[in-house]
Amino acid sequence: MKNTAQPLLEEYQIGNLKLKNRVVMASLTRGRATNVGLVPTPLMARYYAQRASAGLILSEGTWVSSKAIGFINVPGIFTQEQVDGWKLVTKAVHDKGGLIFSQLGHIGSASHPDFFDGELPAGPSAINPQSHSFTPDGFKDTLTPREFTVAEIKQTIQDYKQAAQNAKEAGFDGVEVHAIAGMLIPQFLSPATNQRNDEYGGSIEKRARIVFEILDAIIDVWDSTRVAIKFSPVTFSHVGIVIPDKETIPMFQYILKKLNDYNLAYLHIVGPAEDLTGTAVEVLQDNYFSHFRRHYNGRLMANLGFTQESGNAILQEGIADLVSFGAPFIANPDLPKRFKYNLPLSEGNRDTYYSGGENGYTDYPEAIYDSAVRKD
Ligand SMILES: Cc1cc2nc3c(=O)[nH]c(=O)nc-3n(C[C@H](O)[C@H](O)[C@H](O)COP(=O)(O)O)c2cc1C
């Protein structure tokens, strides 16, 4: 239905999936898989079901294999137990009329030996990403990783494929590849962490190769209109040495040109968190999402710092097709309803973002509004 006042509240079609609005819940790691098997729990099912009024939910980043881990209490999707745990989540969301994609991730070298019985994690090259890993003993500095062998890269691609297959078995509606700064894929894209001189390093084409091999593997399992990818091309903070450089813009132009042939569910782009003036990507400062719109023919999902007003505006202007909200969904489980009735938003407590348990997770109430006057 057309909603000219608030395009965020319009229905939206992706292939044969009908989203009831264009308010997407972005992936939010919440550290609630507090068990040795990293299995999704009934508490997580309740949390996601509370947010089922989003047009689409993207699950928290989820490990594709035991080698992909690098942050405590984050669930995986590589064991049968985990798949069974996710079934609870997808059922709870579907029972409330929602849709949910699984976000598939691998943290690469930004992990820590504490997750691997003292063994080093692997990365594109033996270069310390100079980042931090949230271990069971708190945040620790990353170390110099082992370099992936080509056989390990091929295995990792198969891990994504298997995880995508598992997501299907678990009842998800699709998958999103987690490729934002800090994760394995940007470590391959960046010359700061990828100095390989084989088919996975060197030129832009070779550094980007893994993106397409992962997508091709997943599209063997899912229709392309159920597969998406999320990039943050201009993230500077908290991600060590994987930051934008003079090849970032040509790199993404190359990636987008190739993605134009993929007919994905959508391309998810995280915006700049800071002023880009004086950086290698300064030219994107005033036309960031329009730049991606210009180079990408498919559905575009915009993210970072959006509000009801700016989200409606970017859709109205035709610069994006969908808008995702991360932090606002933490304390506002009924975000679309709050937009619909112009209700105030609640602020989430950062101390409980990753703390485990119900507190600051499933105990944020829906907004109170006068249901006698307002019918929905
Ligand atoms: C607590 C928290 C956890 C997050 N976890 C993930 C994650 O697992 N995967 C991901 O792609 N992004 C993650 N993000 C980033 C969000 O999806 C989103 O890109 C970011 O918060 C910007 O959107 P916002 O301004 O609407 O919050 C996380 C953000 C927060 C605040």
Automatic annotation (TrEMBL):
GO molecular function: FMN binding; oxidoreductase activity, acting on the CH-CH group of donors, NAD or NADP as acceptor
Pfam families in UniProt: Oxidored_FMN
Cited Gene3D superfamilies: Aldolase class I
All residue ranges annotated as the NADH:flavin oxidoreductase/NADH oxidase N-terminal domain in the record: 12-345
One of the record's GO cellular component terms: cytosol
Top-level taxon in the UniProt lineage: Bacteria
Keywords assigned: Oxidoreductase
Cofactor requirements of the protein: FMN
Cited InterPro entries: Aldolase_TIM (IPR013785), OxRdtase_FMN_N (IPR001155), Oye-like (IPR045247)
Entry keyword Ribosomal protein: no
Family listed: Belongs to the NADH:flavin oxidoreductase/NADH oxidase family.
PANTHER family, alphabetized: NADH OXIDOREDUCTASE-RELATED, NADPH DEHYDROGENASE 2-RELATED
Name of the protein described by the UniProt record: N-ethylmaleimide reductase
Lineage per the UniProt record: Bacteria, Pseudomonadati, Bacteroidota, Chitinophagia, Chitinophagales
